[in-house]
Amino acid sequence: MTDIDISLNDNRSAFDKFCESMYAKYKKEKSRNREKDVLSYNEYRTQHKMFLRRKYREKKAAAFATNYLMGARGASAIPRYAEGGYTGAINIQTGPVMQQDNETYLTMGQFEEGMRELTESLSRGGRSYGSRQFQGVS
Description:
Layout: H1 3-8, H2 14-32, H3 41-47, H4 49-69, E1 98-100, E2 103-105, H5 108-124, H6 129-135
């Protein structure tokens, strides 16, 4: 199983994942300072409940502000991990397609090639509002 497969099967909330990453930082700091009094994960969450909530809200607010400054508006400015977000419409150009009974069909190869071209153009281009609009990603 790859890391991607594991993350797809991870049903924990974004807050739980955040708490786990904060606990890992806490443990790393304790080991770096050679401290012996390290709390268990459950003790850490209980004792630092308000701190964790405040930091998580700050993280969401900072991500929202970043998205907004990069041109996202409305629901699309909400970070995905914050139980929100909107990816918007994605235009994929695949080349010639087959139409039958007012339905459009394309092969998996054409679809995969279109997705590959989209990801390559997104990685080459910037994340600014203008470059996303130019690439057909709203």
